[in-house]
Amino acid sequence: MVFPSFQAVAPDLERATVDRARSGDQQALADIYDWYMPRVYRYTVARVGNTHEAEDLTEEVFLKVLGAIGDFHWKDVPFSSWIFRIAHNCIATHYRRSAQRGGPTSEIPEDTVDCRHDLAASVEERITLEEVRQATELLPEAQREVIALRFAVGLSIADTAKALGKREGNIKALQHKAVAKLQRMLIPSVNGVEAKAKV
Amino acid sequence: MTEFEARLQECLAALHEGRWSIDDCLRRYPADAAALRPQLLTAQALSQAYAVAPREEFASVARERFLIATGQRLQEAMDLEPEPSFFAAARVRFLMAAQRAKLGERASQRQPRHVPLFGSPFRALAGGLASIAIFLSFSTYTVASASNSLPGDWQYGVKLQTERVRLALAFDDDSKRSIKLDIAEERVAEIEQLSKKGKIIGPGVLDRLVEQTQPLVNDARDGGWNSDDIERLSAVSAKEDSVLTQAVPQISIDAQSQLDQAKQVSRDARVAVAEVTLQQPDRQPAVVTASVPLATPTGIPVIIELPTSTATPGASATPDSAGTPTELAASPTVADASSGVTIGGTSVGSRNSIKLYPLSAGRIKANVPGPASGWFPIDDGQHGAHLIRLSNDVTTLGHDGSSLIVINTVNGDMYWYVNRGGHIDEVQMRITKDGGIFTADHVVLEAAYGDLANVPLYIMESIEVTPDVTPTPEASATPKATAAAASPTAAP
């Protein structure tokens, strides 16, 4: 199975653990860290494409979680959405700081992307993270967010919507457009049949 | 959303949830298969590409940094009275040093954009080690000064924080349990120290004891504990009981409910230990203490075979099927002039369908099962006096549920030996030591032995000892030796 697979945490256990963490239980905080760190890391890697920065950002996300968990309320959003909302904000801040420092932007000219694959010719060939990163950087920011949360983290449409503060229909549309664009860039031809991307 | 988009979403959701494969999707919607396939393959490729795990070095170091941060935050949240400026300044220095190290590390190792995706594994490791070194140099000082601190000391918060970090860093259940037991022992020791120093013990101190002990009790009842940990919990609960009893005068008025709660949890722990220990099929014989370390019985013991509530081969006094007493209402009084023992006469009551009669032996009086099958003195060859038993068949201890009671005729110490599931447990029922009388806990024994414990408990409560006009003789036999003396091998 190639779709994101993480150790499932029973909702009741997650709720009880989060409640304990909110009251300062260090073991509960450690459990939350263990459950979510790999997913947050994947998300940050998917967003920034650089493992060094992803590591720093992952730590930053959890320090913010630590500072804000006392204010978390179940009635607002699921806990996973809440964490990835924090991660989303951290990455937005990261890009803002990077732009202020005059660092490289995330834009890469389309002609530099040379990562086309024909899965019909090489179905076992794996598209690398770098190729995906380069391709996703050509997408609008909103689509990149959705792709990272859906395919790197494995959030549901509903939880993705809550993490990004958007409606589910909006998320579905963004995902559909992003996948169609990426398909054209990454695997334009399958079994000799040109994909009928409906963008 | 178009019909195609809806089907694509349905397929992606099913793929995410593992319900369908891509082929399943295409078979379900053959008309759209050509358009669906590349998009599903794209989604699959994205998930494959993103399936990266953090480097092991980063994961472990980052976790440690996070846990340290949780400790810092908890420390801030603690209501330390008073919070000395020293600690605040030290913490700020630590955080600043850590921040400088982190910034320095970033500045020196920040790579341009073209760095390989999987850079040197030493980068985070070096940074992590630097942070740990700073933390350790800080904690070496604070922990050293805090480890012996007591509630109310300014370092006490550091001590609690260190415990939390230690616990959070433990990876397996056995390690966590061992650390939790360490912490529980520390909480009890703190109360003992406060008590010895004559300090007032407030509700927070007792709350912390309860918070540390209660989860251990629950965990023990869930099973899976090894015998060493069970023994440690037993020791902790016994210590709690004795320390709390000694500390009562120093418990503040507003902490009385916490004291009751702490006593209850301590008792729950003893019950849990008894339940867990005695229900293990391959357990070792247990020694159930009467709240104090083993006291050596002195003087001449009286050994009484206790009839059981279940029919036992060789037992001479058992209830009939209707549960009515098999002893007659009046039993002949028997006496042994050489040992000064008399037993029998009019029944003073019954427990578990077993009639009880007055016993007079040396300085003690008690109510015990009657001599239905007669008794006779024996000389064990060790005490220079007569031991007494009520049955010719002392081998009843070889049967499940049979029991034997040993009473010291000088000070009233009482031990109960019970065969439970093939193991002969030694239960210290009543012990005099240093002018105090310590008795076995009803709740614990009833939890462990059920109705079998009722008669010994009743005997224990009924024991009276006349004042000693002469110095108590020196110890002459241990309880185990006494039990051995009562065993078939020791009997003539």
Describe the structure.
- The complex is a heterodimer of chains A (199) and B (492).
- In chain A, strands 1-2 form a two-stranded antiparallel ribbon.
- Chain A is 62% helix and 2% strand.
- In chain A, strand 1 (189-190) and strand 2 (193-194) form a beta hairpin.
- In chain A, helix 2 (26-48) runs antiparallel to helix 3 (51-68) and helix 6 packs across helix 8.
- Chain A is mainly α.
- The longest helix of chain A is centred in the first third of the chain and has 23 residues, at 26-48.
- In chain B, strands 1, 2, 10, 11, 12 and 13 form a 6-stranded mixed beta sheet that branches. In chain B, strands 3, 4, 5, 6, 7 and 14 form a 6-stranded antiparallel beta sheet that branches. In chain B, strands 8-9 form a two-stranded antiparallel ribbon.
- Residues 77-94, 100-140, 291-301, 307-329, 373-396 and 472-492 of chain B have low confidence and may be disordered.
- Chains A and B meet through helix 2, helix 3, helix 5, helix 6 and helix 8 of A and helix 1, helix 3, helix 4 and helix 7 of B.
